[in-house]
Amino acid sequence: MKYKLMSIVFCGLLLCGMGLNLATPDRDISYTERRQLAQAPRIDGEFLTTRGGGETIEEYLLDQFWNRDFFRILKVWFDQKVLRKSDTNGLYEAEGHLFQMEYPLDEDSVRSAAQKMLDIQKKFLSQDAKVAYAVIPDKAHYISEGTKRPSLDYEKMTAILSEELPEMDYLSLEEHLSLEDYYRTDLHWKQENLAQVTQAVWEQFDIRAQLNIQDMSAHAYQPFYGAYYGRTASSIKPDELIWLTDEEIDGLSVKDYDEVKESKDVVYAEEKLGGVDSYELFFGGNSPLITVDNPQCRGKRQLIVFRDSFGSSIAPLLAKEYSRVVLVDLRFMGYEFLDQFVDFDDADVLFLWGQQVYNNSAMLRQR
Amino acid sequence: MLFSSVSFLYYYLPILFMGYGFVPRKYKNLVLLLFSLFFYFFGEGVYIFILIFSSLVDYVHGLMIEKYRGTWQAKAALVSSVVINVGLLATFKYSDFFVENLNALFFRETPFALPGLALPLGISFYTFQTMSYTIDVYRGDVKAQRNFVNFAAYVTMFPQLVAGPIVRYSDVAAQMERGQNSSGNDRRAAWEQFGRGVERFIVGMGKKVIIANSLGELSKTLYDSGEPTVALYWIAMASFSMQIYFDFSGYSDMAIGLGRMIGFSFPENFNYPFVSQSIVEFWRRWHMTLSRWFRDYVYIPLGGGRCRLGKQIRNIVIVWFLTGFWHGASWNFILWGLYFAVLLVGEKLLWGRAVAKAPRVLRHMYTLFLLSFSFVIFDTVDLGLLWERLTGMMGLASIPFADEFTLYYLKSYGVLLLVSAVAATPLPVRLYGKIRTRLGGDMRSMEVVEADGAMKPQRQLRLLDVLEICAVAFMVVICTAYIVDSSFNPFLYFRF
């Protein structure tokens, strides 16, 4: 009787699973995982004779599995509650936030980033150019000691950089940020909390101005599923994504040099909200080169920011005191012939990357 | 196709049960063959022709050996079969290795291009199975199979096709021929046999999906960290050892379970190898079907242990060289095999008696200590890196004993490591047996003998059975969750 029942239960589960999977319509996008889901492959002669066709089908079946999110949450629950694992897929939850374990510090990578910065300075900048660099702390830097997991050593990273870049000004952002200035489910900082950081940048380049965020209009979108949200399955609620506008920001003129991007030449690409990555709201997502012109700016100053995705949300705020802000993303373009696209004369230059970029500086391209 | 995949669990298996369960007995082998071919084709595409070619070659050779029994033609057919099978292996598995080494030795200036042939899934297993068939027919241990469908169904039988256990034709000949399993039951999916198969399959899937995959992630993370410590090397070694055990024994459990579900009894492949008290014992418990194969088809024909000492040592070295080389076309596998040859010769001639007299706990420690290094050799293809890891483990490298990173992972995976250590011993099964016995039943039955001699089910036993059924259902759901979430799922033994 036991084995009969066991067999019936087992076969029943498999048959139910098959039925539910067949009956469930395919989805294009997983919003919680922030990615496009695999679609049914076209099965033709070539597909059948090629090795690995089975893997393609399996990928499709996995992506389109009935109630996929429930099973992913269940796995995390089992990992954390039964097996008592401290992280899942390299992500962990602490103090109401999700964190990615980034470890260890790759000192060679940090030194290599510094060398590239020096190379750019030597190649394109005059002796009296104002150049500074900043390291955006990974948000794990702000967790209290008790709950901390292995993470990138911020002090050590900045010490290496100051050793390698003795002639370049260091702009410390550490004291202008706290854990609350980052999204709970994402690695990025919140635009609405960047007043102090923006002012610190301005001050670095001798601009005396006050940024009053409370005078700006705040627009909100939720649910914002951050980059970490989809890679684990936690009970943390999705974030609210806020972006700021005022007359000056509305008047910014944007030129995006990415030729294949759909949403471009805008400060806020609102059509990106609710898409695979809502953070692409800022300038429509990653781009190798963007110029932002502010016709309302009184002066004629230019700021060149070598940046990663953190730079997208702060750029509209920085642009309030510059007639032009140039955003260069060396992850998508090499710097060797940069002077063909960017005018470095009399420009303020800021290297503004997150710790992850310094720690993986091979992604910063020369060519 | 992987057993622990959505395509297998939620499409292939239900359709197989419907197709295989309801066809008349005389068509079962045909249906099994068709399903097995599809199983292989799903992952390997055109490589299925190598499998069909191998089946055809050994089917014909088997018939020829039987027809010309006792003559030189039979011997020629046997040699031809062995040459073709070894040739297939040499071509698809070892050609890159041979060319690479020839280039390194003789053609450094103008090296030959590597053939770069992809390794057909399971080729190491099915060539060994078909070779055992022709050898057994030649020896007269089994009769040649005259029905090609039956023979091809044996060679391609999906549960054991790609990663064993190495099922010899003699193991299943009667079941294939008469449609019965070895215990004499009808081969149709009798509930008990099917249920026991389900139980075994689920245990294997849990081993693979929950334990082996997670420990695989751990050892990879530790080795990739770039900040080695002595403790890190030991934890990485322990997690890899457990990974490979649960991966491979999990696969064998699934194969044996599936075999039962479709009415076959496959030989056991593992018997708690980590409780061994010597290296000799370890190899009686680890990958038993492979050891048995080498013993019967290489070691004993070479003279085994019944010859003079020098030859005995030679035989051990040959067998373990081949065992190592079978595991992979790389020097670390050869080194791994020879490492065991040295240990086995040592146990046979030098320290075996001393080990046997030592207290039990010391015997376990001795075995585990020597096995630790074997798993590091097995896991490390780059011989330079191997030296680094071995010296690191022994504390001979200038690295700290432990650091924050090592301790974090030890804590994070502590429960899983503990669970895997306990699950690698017979303790859980013994405990379960004791509970059943205490409740008045035995391992097999849920009924108890009352004073009047009548068999009556007991409430506690029934409850235990219900719990077991719930556990099976729970494991199906949890394993599905792991499969859906994880992309880190390859069976290690698929590469062999």
Walk me through the topology.
The complex is a heterodimer of chains A (367) and B (496).
Chain A: H1 2-23, E1 29-30, E2 35-36, H2 45-49, H3 53-63, H4 68-82, E3 91-94, E4 97-100, H5 107-124, E5 131-136, H6 154-164, E6 169-171, H7 195-204, E7 217-224, E8 239-245, H8 247-250, E9 253-256, E10 289-293, E11 302-307, H9 310-318, E12 324-328, E13 347-354, H10 355-359
Parallel strand pairs in A: 5-6, 5-13, 11-12, 11-13
Antiparallel strand pairs in A: 1-2, 3-4, 7-8, 9-10, 10-12
Helix pairs in contact in A: 5-6
Chain B: H1 6-22, H2 28-44, H3 48-67, H4 72-106, H5 123-139, H6 148-156, H7 158-161, H8 169-178, H9 191-224, H10 230-261, H11 279-285, H12 288-299, H13 309-327, H14 331-349, H15 352-357, H16 360-379, H17 383-393, H18 404-412, H19 414-423, H20 427-438, E1 447-449, E2 455-457, H21 459-485
Antiparallel strand pairs in B: 1-2
How would you characterize the overall build of this protein?
The complex is a heterodimer of chains A (367) and B (496). Chain A starts with a helix and ends in an 8-residue tail after the last helix. Chain A is elongated and about 85 Å long. In chain A, the strands form four sheets. A seven-stranded mixed sheet of chain A has the order 6-5-13-11-12-10-9. Chain A has helices at residues 2-23, 45-49, 53-63, 68-82, 107-124, 154-164, 195-204, 247-250, 310-318, 355-359, and strands spanning 29-30, 35-36, 91-94, 97-100, 131-136, 169-171, 217-224, 239-245, 253-256, 289-293, 302-307, 324-328, 347-354. Chain A has 367 residues and is α/β, with parallel strands linked by helices. Chain A folds into two domains: 20-94, no CATH class; 100-363, no CATH class. Chain B is mainly alpha-helical and 496 residues long. A two-stranded antiparallel ribbon of chain B has the order 1-2. The longest helix of chain B has 35 residues, at 72-106. The model of chain B is unreliable at 180-184 and 488-496 (pLDDT under 50). Chains A and B meet through α1, α3 and α4 of A and α1, α2, α9, α18 and α19 of B.
